[in-house]
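The instructor's notes for this session suggest beginning with a concrete chain rather than abstract definitions. Hand out the sequence below and ask the class to guess, before any prediction is shown, which regions might be ordered.
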Amino acid sequence: MRYVQNITISLVVFIFLSCGLEPEPINYGMDICAHCNMKIMDKRYGAEFVSSKGKVFKFDSGECLIEYIYQNNISENEKGQRLVTDFNNPGTLIKTGESTFIISQKLPSPMGAFLTAFSSRNAAQKKVEESGGDVYDWVSVKDKIHNKQ
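After discussion, reveal the predicted structure:
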């Protein structure tokens, strides 16, 4: 009987701990975008949304994440995480609210919005000096991408 109790307690703890709001690594070349259903290939452009219930949605680009957010009426006040890949650190997810974005015709993103994310404003500004484009924060880039459609 004691053995059954220990197993039950262990399972409950495991289930509780596995329901966190943590992102998952994107399996490039394997995972499918939750918005456009394309295979996620480019390690410089992936994105994720982790819902308040801990469900992870993966995207092949920031623009797919943005359109998914609008189509599903996900407000910024909703708990969870919104993440994009840092262009300068492929495969590394960063929070959208802490990111800086550029739209540059010389940096084509997977869905054609030319949207690229950086972990800092300085990194984004440096890329703009090299490639041209405009700098945005998360709020302004969401509006720009969504209203462009």
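Then share the key points. Helices lie at 2-18, 62-71, 121-131, 138-148. The chain has one domain: 21-148.
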